[in-house]
What we know:
Elements: H1 7-10, H2 17-23, H3 30-43, E1 54-56, H4 59-64, E2 70-72, H5 73-81
Antiparallel strand pairs: 1-2
Amino acid sequence: MPRKPNAAFMKPVKPSAALAAVVGSAAMPRTQVTKKLWAYIKKHGLQDKVNRRMINADATLKVVFGGKGKVNMFDMTKLVSKHLS
């Protein structure tokens, strides 16, 4: 039996202005926000070379991460959710 996607994850959310600088301003599901965030991190080489779980924030991401320069990928989702409504 195929798994039914979680409706809460599929509900479009609106990114804040700070997050929109990274993922765009259109309303989209959380899954899409995460996908675009990772695309940005990979494109700009922000994943720590030694500890792959750490994200080194650039100026744009620092705003999203509440001023933190280094965030682990599990804290990242928590910090990003504050920018979704």
